[in-house]
Amino acid sequence: GEATITIGDETHHVRTGDVVFIPAGVIHSYENTGSEPFEFLCIVPNKEDVIKIVEEGC
C-alpha cells in the first residue's frame, strides 16, 4: 500500500519497497493514503519501546 509517515517535523510519502529509519525517541505516525491496506515491518533493537495508539478525533 501507500502511506504518509511523519517523523518529527518531516513528512514522507512511502509505498511498497520503501525503507524508513526512525531514530529512537522521535515521535512518529503513519496514515494510509492509498486504496489498498498499508502493511509494514517494524524492527526494534533490544531496547524498551513505548507504543501509544491514538484514535483519530480523540
Derived from helix and strand composition plus strand pairing, the structural class reads: mainly beta
The proportion of residues in beta strands is 25-35%
As a whole number of angstroms, the C-alpha radius of gyration is: 12 Å
Number of helices: 0
The dominant shape is globular
The overall pLDDT average reads 88
Flag low-confidence runs. none
Summarize the model shown:
The protein has 58 residues and is mainly β. It has strands at residues 2-7, 10-15, 28-32.
Secondary structure layout plus pairing:
Elements: E1 2-7, E2 10-15, E3 28-32
Antiparallel strand pairs: 1-2, 1-3
Structure description:
- This protein has strands spanning 2-7, 10-15, 28-32.
- The chain is mainly beta.
- The chain has a three-stranded antiparallel β-sheet, with no helix packed on it.
- The chain is globular, with a radius of gyration of 12 Å.
- The protein starts with a strand and ends in a 26-residue tail after the last strand.
Defining key terms:
58 residues; 3-stranded antiparallel beta sheet; 0% helix; mainly beta; globular; single chain
